[in-house]
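Dear Dr. V.,

Thank you for agreeing to look over these. As mentioned in my earlier message, I'm a first-year student in the group and I'm still getting used to reading structure tokens, so any feedback on how I've presented them would be very welcome. I ran two proteins. I've put each sequence directly above its structure. The first is here:
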Amino acid sequence: MSDIENKLYTVKYTPDSESHLLPVQECCRICESKICTIICPANVYEWDENKQKLIVKYENCLECGACRIACPDSSLGWEYPKGNKGVMFKQG
């Protein structure tokens, strides 16, 4: 396991039952860079070439927002998870 994978393993989160990440699949299909699949530190995004669809593993999201910032078409709907769901960052 790499250093980043070891650190990600220690992050605590409670996933919501619905995704807070909503890509516009039509835009994803024509996106040349698929930058979200590269920039996300938690590997949330995966391009499925056979289905021509962006697969979103929202349960792993660190809520850093890098995907939203990097998306060249601003076609990634992104919200914080509802209620007490999502990442729990250690205070202190």
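The second protein is here, in the same arrangement:
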Amino acid sequence: MRPQQRDKDAPVIKKNCYFCTNKITTVDYKDSGLIRRFMSPHAKIMNRKKTGSCPKHQRMITTALKRARHMALLPFVSA
């Protein structure tokens, strides 16, 4: 079996949105510790499939991360 193929009998684990479960309504760009959870080690935005966030909160994360980068709170790239 090739590595990219998933076993059809394996259960699909649904990840819950971090913001929905903790009842967080807004994502603040100044909270860099929270935003870093949704970044890869190379300072890229991780996708919804990996983070498990819902579309509404993924858009908020993206906006907050871009604002934090512009204000020099987070890096654009990581070496």
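From my reading of the second output: Helices lie at 18-21, 32-36, 48-51, 55-70. The mean pLDDT is 89. Does that match how you would interpret it?

Kind regards,
E.
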